[in-house]
Amino acid sequence: MGSDTIKVGVVGVGYLGKIHAEKYARMPEAELVAVVDIDKGRCQEVAVHTGCRPLYSHRDLLGQVDAVSIAVPTCSHYQIAKDFFLGGIDVLLEKPITSTVQEAQELNVLAKEKGLIFQIGHLERFNGALASMNGVLKAPLLIESYRLSPFSGRGTDVDVILDLMIHDIDIILNILGPEIEGVEAVGTPFCSPQIDVAHARVLFKGGCVAYISASRIAPERVRKMVILQKDSYLSVDYIKQSLIITRRGEGGKDGVQTDEIVHERDSLEVQLTAFLQSVRERTPPVVTGEDGQRALEVALQIAAVIDNALKDRS
User: Fold this and answer.
1) Which CATH superfamily is domain 125-265+299-313 in?
2) Which of 45, 56, 138, 172 is most buried (most C-beta within 10 Å)?
3) Are strands 90-94 and 118-121 parallel, antiparallel or unpaired?
């Protein structure tokens, strides 16, 4: 490994963390030093597969790496990220940032005090379809998003808002800004003790309305967003990484003109590459800790509206 190689570790090698480790192991700019998991058998398996050391406590990574990906259950995000910040290590933390806004605030303050990179794993920000909107996205009047999945049993340590909807909350906040004037929402538990289906209507300052739907009991997987603008209608398919742009016919003619842009890329690899670039160049990450905190604040606001409605009906 060259002297400019960034030493990295991955904490939590479940479904997503294992993929982080596999990507890092193949990246020439990274040296995967170790993977960490409390499941020793799984940890050893992933370590052998990726050619690194297995460790069973995240604290054993301190002093061994420059940067770390954390992909553990949300309830552990705060303490583990805090330990790495105190150890002077840059952090890519999977979404949602933390369980509470106070925890998120504390991590953001600590990262800033220490001058450390703090990136949140809102993966869809790196989707090729969103990259295709550069120059086309102007002044949205209406946004609708749909993030639906069949029930898998995975991710049920949090509700569907923090599990799925938060991706779209983050994207919409990035498009429209953080100023919200009102939230309406409905939802219910279905296959777990948590809310499994949620629909929200969010009114933004400036008049744009966002309708956000998330479900983990749907018959099929859907990842779509549509944006209505004065002069165009944008249709995003995150799975196909496609953007369809519909405009009025040219020259005042009746009808519409449609263009499709497909920009397929490995979103996770792009995300990890961007993280390592921030680590190397000491530049702000694409998705900051503040972004993660704002998305969490809105997600918890939506969840509170639903919880209050459910209590009123019981």
Assistant:
1) Dihydrodipicolinate Reductase; domain 2 (3.30.360.10)
2) 172
3) parallel
Residues in the chain: 314
What's the pTM value of the predicted model, to 2 decimals?
A: 0.94
Q: Are 120 and 263 in contact (CB under 8 A)?
A: no
Q: Pull the structure tokens for residue 219.
A: 């018959």
Whether residue 179 contacts residue 204, with contact meaning beta carbons closer than 8 Å, is answered with yes
**pLDDT tens sequence across 40-87:** 999 999 999 999 999 999 999 999 999 999 999 999 999 999 999 999
Q: What residues does each domain of the chain span?
A: 6-122+268-287, 125-265+299-313
Instruction: Judge contact between 160 and 215, C-beta under 8 A.
Output: yes
How many C-beta atoms surround the C-beta of residue 186 within 10 A?
15
Write down the pLDDT at residue 1.
36
For 239, residues 6+ apart whose C-beta sits below 8 A from its C-beta are 221, 222, 223
Alpha-carbon distance 185 to 195, whole Å? Answer: 12
At 120-174, the pLDDT tens digits run: 999 999 999 999 999 999 999 999 999 999 988 766 788 999 999 999 999 999 9
**Domain 6-122+268-287: CATH superfamily, name plus number:** NAD(P)-binding Rossmann-like Domain (3.40.50.720)
304 membership: H or E segment, kind and range:
helix 289-313
Would you say the CATH fold of 125-265+299-313 matches that of 6-122+268-287? Answer: no
Contacts of 224 (CB under 8 A, 6+ apart): 145, 146, 235, 236, 237, 238
